[in-house]
Design brief:
Blueprint lengths: L2 E3 L6 E3 L2 E3 L12 H13 L4 E5 L6 H9 L9 E6 L1 E3 L5 E4 L3 H15 L4 E6 L8 H13 L3 E7 L3 H8 L4 E7 L11 H8 L2 E5 L30 H21 L3 H10 L5 E5 L4 H8 L8 H10 L12 H4 L7
Parallel strand pairs: 3-4, 3-12, 4-5, 5-8, 8-9, 9-10, 10-11, 11-12
Antiparallel strand pairs: 1-2, 6-7
Helix pairs in contact: 1-2, 3-4, 5-6, 7-8, 7-10
Keywords: Oxidoreductase
Organism: Rhodoplanes tepidamans
Protein name: Aldo/keto reductase
Length: 330
């Protein structure tokens, strides 16, 4: 397994990470046995980075990971956890809470559910606009000193917030959406990260399956959160699927799948970027792992970007209400 370091101060992890969210929430029912088998297959293949959030299934995802790791030495994996999102029993979103006391309380519950004494990377899921980022990072820094957290990360924040956070404590990485059709970080966020020596864990590398080569409008389900995503709706979906077909032509000429081309493109944007794949099944995981064997030439990269030009996606990556609260979009 190839390795990459999360920034100048972070841990060394596998060049591909496994995002476990879909095993507990947001994409409709998941098969528990298959989820556990997929995590095991990832570990067997050398994947060492598992990403979760305490609000994925309201603790379900952390408990699932704990079960999968029962017989695995703790130092074999790096667990990244997001916190702060507030949800009601019916699953609706209530905002974010990143006050220092909330930070430490959330971590206490996370450690209990995961059955571990530390989290490798701990990060607020979004910016809590009511709490200075310095206070949130300072609280996590307290937990670093206490030994409960190894490294501090951020998620979906902009350049100014990154700089303020890094002035308080070293930040190892920013988790943010980055894909062929979500390239907003290239303007100011990515240059800022590189200036400060902060890595990227890129989620949504397949745009939640949209550019995986597998998603179809016929397969859409109202139980799936993508039904509320502008890119998956109506004419937007048709235009985006046309991009997928253009990418398929390039991928097939190269002897790889659409998903492998999309993942390899993200990985090729720099050694400081670790793609996260949200595979819920072993076959999808195996396909994603195949991207690690792909070396894209300059001609390959140019062909991929001709097929999916920057800014070509139809629709925003989140619904309007969610976009409005993203610090990374300001």
């Amino acid at each position: 397994m190839q390795q990459r370091q999360l920034g100048h101060t972070g841990p060394t992890v596998s060049a591909l990470g496994l995002g476990c969210m879909g095993m507990s929430a947001f994409y409709g029912p998941a098969d528990r046995a298959e989820s556990l088998a997929t995590i095991q297959a990832a570990l067997d293949a050398g994947v060492t980075l598992l990403d979760t959030g305490d609000f994925y299934g309201m603790g379900h995802n952390e408990l699932l990971i704990a079960e999968a790791l029962k017989q695995v030495p703790r130092d074999r994996v790096r667990i990244s956890v997001k916190f702060g999102a507030q949800r009601s029993p019916d699953g609706s979103w209530l905002g974010y809470d990143a006050r220092p006391a909330a930070v430490k309380t959330a971590l206490a519950y996370t450690l209990q559910r995961l059955g571990t004494d530390h989290v490798d990377v701990y990060r607020p899921a979004r910016l809590d606009t009511a709490v200075p980022i310095e206070e949130t990072v300072g609280a996590i820094a307290d937990m670093v000193k206490a030994g409960h957290v190894r490294h501090i990360g951020l998620s979906e924040v902009g350049a100014a917030t990154i700089r303020r956070a890094a002035a308080v404590h070293p930040i190892c990485d920013l988790q943010i959406e980055y894909s062929l059709i979500s390239r907003g970080i290239e303007e100011t966020i990515l240059p800022t990260l590189r200036q400060l020596g902060i890595g990227v864990t890129a989620y949504g590398v397949l745009s939640r399956g949209l550019i995986s080569g597998h998603w179809t409008k016929e397969a859409a389900s109202a139980a799936d959160f993508r039904a509320h995503s502008p890119r998956f709706q109506g004419d937007n979906a048709d235009r985006n699927l046309a991009l997928v077909e253009a990418l398929r032509t390039v991928a097939e000429a190269r002897g790889i799948t659409v998903a492998q081309a999309a993942i390899a493109w993200v990985a090729a944007q720099g050694p400081d970027i670790v793609p996260l794949v949200g595979a819920r099944r072993r076959d999808r995981l195996a396909e994603a792992l195949g991207s690690l064997d792909v070396t894209l030439s300059a001609d390959d990269l140019a062909a991929i970007e001709r097929a999916v030009p920057k800014g070509a996606a139809a629709g925003a990556r989140y619904a309007e209400a969610q976009m409005a609260v993203l610090d990374s979009e300001r």
